[in-house]
Amino acid sequence: MGEAFITRRGGGANLNFRVNDYPTDTDLDQIVGKVNEIAVLTDTEMPDWQISFEEPENPEEGFVWVKAGTSSKHQIEALKKHSVLLNIQGVWQYDGEDWVRKKAFVWQNGEWNDLDVFVYDNGDQCTALTGGWGKYEYYGAVTFYDDHVNMALAPGGTLNIFTIGLVDFSGYTNLRIKYGNATNNNAYVWVGPSQSGPYAATATLSSGGSEATLDVSDYKDSELYIGVRIGNNGSIDVYEICLE
């Protein structure tokens, strides 16, 4: 547990953001937000919120934790009078026993932006979190396009893509991947302490599938590499990978 970074519901005179709760069935596309407004979708009343690097101490039921980190795709200017940038890594709500990840968005550039923590996003290598993406090619080719990665393998070969840097898994329970055009069941998403294996956990990317989820709850206090590997012929396109 650690001290709060910012704790104040409703905002103060010097805060340049706000945290508001909305029912889970809210269509945010019909709502115009305020700059740097964080919208939390929940059906549980939010008595208060806190932005901090670590879990708040002694929370009451419904308390919302906006997790800050050292890097993120989503940054907000926290204060009006001083330049303080916050890297937002997701939102959790306390249910009386555990912290539960909540769907949340931030209003920036005239639209709601999903606060899922992407490590690869339709061509964006999310370098601030990942250090970029590398590849290993043996009888085949990996091609990084503007909106996806294609992995096309020749018989007997192996292809692997992976984060250049270790990724902080603190607070996350799942890794979700969106993919397509998988020609067999020989591809899988992985996390591990090494880019080449052995891996801590894997999930198969099935032929004909479009999305898979890998349980990473055992690694919430770890820093690991993330990757996708394919072997024994076949091909696959990768679109998104994010932590939840």
Helix-strand layout with pairing:
Layout: E1 18-22, E2 37-41, E3 49-52, E4 64-69, E5 74-77, E6 85-94, E7 99-102, E8 104-108, E9 111-114, E10 117-121, H1 127-130, E11 133-144, E12 149-163, E13 167-168, E14 174-180, E15 187-192, E16 201-205, E17 211-215, E18 223-231, E19 234-243
Parallel strand pairs: 1-2, 3-4
Antiparallel strand pairs: 2-8, 4-6, 5-6, 6-7, 8-9, 10-19, 11-12, 12-18, 12-19, 13-18, 14-17, 14-19, 15-16, 15-18
Using brief descriptors, characterize the structure shown.
19 strands; 1 helix; about 50% strand; ten-stranded antiparallel sheet; mainly beta; Jelly Rolls; about 240 residues; five-stranded mixed sheet
Question: Care to describe what's here?
Answer:
The structure is a single chain. This protein has one helix spanning 127-130; strands at 18-22, 37-41, 49-52, 64-69, 74-77, 85-94, 99-102, 104-108, 111-114, 117-121, 133-144, 149-163, 167-168, 174-180, 187-192, 201-205, 211-215, 223-231, 234-243. The protein is mainly β and 244 residues long. The radius of gyration is 19 Å and the shape is elongated. The model has no long low-confidence stretch (mean pLDDT 87).
